[in-house]
Amino acid sequence: MPASSPASTGEMARIPGMKTQRNAELGLLAFAMILVAAYGATVEASRIGEITPTFWVPAALLSILFLGLHFVVRYTAPYADPVLIPAVALINGLGVGFLRRLDIGDALSDKQPVPSVFAGIGGRQLVWTLIALILAAILLLVVRDHKIVSRYAYTLGLTGIVLVMIPAVLPASISEVNGAKLWIRLGAFSIQPGEFAKIALVSFFAYYLVRKREVLSLASRRVLGIDFPRGRDLGPVVTVWLLSLLVLVFEKDLGTALLYFGLFVVTLYVATERASWLIIGLLLFFGGVYVAYLLGASVGGPFANFYDRAQVWLNPFDNENYERLGGSYQLVQGLLSLGTGGLFGSGPGGGSPRFVPEVQNDFIFAGMGEEIGLFGLSALLVLYLLIVERGLRSALAVRDSFGKLVAGGLSFTLGLQIFVILGGITGLIPLTGQTTPFLSSGGSSLMANWLLIAMLLRISNAARGPAASGGGTDRAGGGPKKAPVQLHGAMTEVIKP
Amino acid sequence: MNAPLRRAGVVILVLFGLLFANLNWVQAYKADDYRTNDYNRRVVVAQYERPRGIIEAGGQGVATNKVTDDALKYLRVYPRKEVYAPVLGYRPVGLAATGIENAENDFLSGESDKLFADRVKDMFTGNNTGGGNVLLTLNTKAQETAWKELNDNERGVDKGAAIAIDPQTGAVQAMVSMPSFDPNPLVSHDEKAAAAAYNKLNKNPDQPLLNRSTAETKPPGSVFKVIISAAALQNGYTTETEIEAGREYRESGAVIRNSEDEVCPGSQIDLKAALTTSCNTGYARLGVTLGRDKVLATAKAFGFEDDQLTVGDLEGSGLPVAMSDTGKIANPDGSVDKGALAQSSLGQRDVRMTPLQGALIAATVANGGKQMRPYLVQKLTSPDLRTIYTADPKTLRTPINGQVASDLKDMMVSVVENGTGKRARIDGMEVGGKTGTAQNAEGADPHGWFVGFAFNDKGEAVSAVCVMLENVPGGHASAEAARIAGLIMKAAAGQGGD
After folding, report:
1. Is there a contact between A374 and B2 if contact means CB atoms under 8 Å apart?
2. B463 is catalytic
3. What is this structure's pTM?
4. Of B140, B138, B118, B141, whose CA–CA distance to B130 is shortest?
5. Is the ipTM value over 0.95, yes or no?
6. Taking burial as the number of CB atoms within 10 A of a residue's CB, which of A107, A273, A434, B370 is the most buried?
7. Do A273 and B22 touch (CB under 8 A)?
8. Residue A89: C-alpha distances to residues A70, A132, A139, A400, B350 (Å)
9. Of A412, A491, A264, A467, nearest to B5 (Cα)?
10. What pLDDT does residue A224 have?
């Protein structure tokens, strides 16, 4: 690790007069962990009837983990956004707390003693958090400048497409869970490769678009006052559109398709500043979805699943939909759970989350909603919004196009994923098999999303660090100086009003 | 690139705004709906947190509770299984109950306004005292006898019903239906097993879930002659009035014969003898002579065409009773179809009757012409056994006056003493009744009916009964019904049974 900074603080590349705000981060983190500890105590008081002497252990363990990441950030990305880690840590901590609450509830209803902190899904989630944080730290340590990622853009792009396609190609017995083929299941382990694919794909799109943005944004034909791209430039859009429709049909999942297509269209729009791409994208996507719906109603076959899901969404309380295998049972139980919670909820530990199938995974938001109510869920929503908007703010502030596109794309994708799963659970849009970032039990989601946060931290460091004011020199990352050369035209951005 | 990034930020804000708005819809606006929704398992668990009220008959619990280790604390238990099932119904997890369990559900579950004070008390004491109890009018001896005799009938009949009523009050003494069902598997806390048990019963062609004493109508056959007799007595006839009979009666294409050649072969027979021997030609002619309007009016006065009646408490909730019906007895142009009238006078053609209606006819005769409203709930008591409701017998209708009732009683006693209902006789009691053998489908065995009443040695009407056996083989279909009816009335009067 290069150490060119004053030994007294141990921080590198620190410029006097510029605030790193690392201490603010530490303070917020402490506050978040106090909330997590308080949540654990409330759960124990409500479920077990007393607060055990070890109620603070999960919160303390999490504190140590997050503190570790905090120190890595102090050394490798001192100017990174100070809100990201505490906000994510709070959500992650509450997730662990809720999973432990499920463990305690399950054990007590089976007349078993209260499980240890490391047992059950709560314990596993703690371990996954550890692994996810190590991965995030490694990313921060290895990638000292986000621009070097662009060197591996094609590799990442290929990896991303492979990750997306694997579950579609695999037999349903390995890849299908609850009607959606999004998984690779090997024995007790199951990963959702799509979670990782989104990071790889955003990086690839960013690189590709930085190179092509001029041609995509300048060459156009004007129709009805809107600039439309030339036919041959539509190629990549149509390719990704077809890819996402294939996902829709073969992985039977609207949400994932929406996620991939949305992230591409948005990075395209950000890169070219052409609203026409958005219009084309939206028309293509919703047109495709509507055709899939019609095909599902008339032809069936691979489209039938999508049609069924749309029916379930439209009429969840219809008795036929409710009774049907793979029907609206889960959605309805989730809605009832949320409704039972009402404004204030029954208090942590006071609900019956096990009435909702998969409450530890996709439906964790509904399970928590019964206990923390509308007010608690609103607070969670605000936290998520905060993370996404802070990511977008880094994208605004960072100077290089690649960084802007990666940070913007990743933040938007995160926001879109939250919208897709929470909208699905609350009946706003058809339900899909996405995980709720940082809350759902499971390693892939946690690891991928912490990697995403690490990438945002890295870019926000570049955005807020001295490089932002120091002109062309790139000191914040300390990475290979060759990196910008790889990006043709990255610094030749035409400043628009 | 910053302008589109800002717009992307706005899009995210809008999306989260939608999420927030929808969350308000689900958790605030629809919250009460969802909290009490039928699919909400929490509602079910809460219902099972306190014991449901007990249903008793004659001091014996016929629907009780057992504490379990499940998520649902109390399991409903029906100790007498098939015997009381048609009356009690059952109360499955998360689905609507049937029978008295359904009719008195509010009271049994404790949610009734009548138990409001108990709920307020619970709030302060922190107890879950449970729902109120229901005491049935059923006489356990009569009920058990009816069930046993119906199932052990000498003809091997597998479908039928029996019902006994106290003529003076309308209190139901026995109500059984065959085949019946064991309600216990249907209320299992294992809902899949419960659904499987239900589906099996529901698919059974013998319809064990059907309460045949109240919910099914069948052609009553000669039992209907009691109605014709009542119509005649109200229109100037006496028990001695000679009516035309004979071996055969042809009317508008309908051919009426007697069940056997030795029944009323002569041209004239008095009304009492006609009923005693169940003279078909006499009654068919009598019905046609009286005319359609009088026949229909009398039937209606006895309770035919009433689709509102329920048997439960006297405040309106109870088992629904199917409408007994005489049919229109009309040609397509609306004029009287005399052939149909002749056949209808014998309880054939389109005439249909529930066993409950049969028992009501006999009860009306035994009670001097006053038809008491039938009821099953004698008493409702709070969890601490305070009486909340006691049945106060009500006259439902008065189709005939005392004189007509007295004449009819004489005629029906003659049926049992000298005629077709001899097997219903009980030592030491005065028993009257009327048999019925009803043709139903081509080639099928006829249904056997008996409606009747019994007076004790003090001259008090103690029981009115109706027994119906479907498709009785071997001739004299009604004789077996009469035998069973006698045993039920004897048990109801406290003189026998097990």
Report:
1. no
2. no
3. 0.68
4. B118
5. no
6. A434
7. no
8. 11, 12, 18, 29, 79
9. A412
10. 67
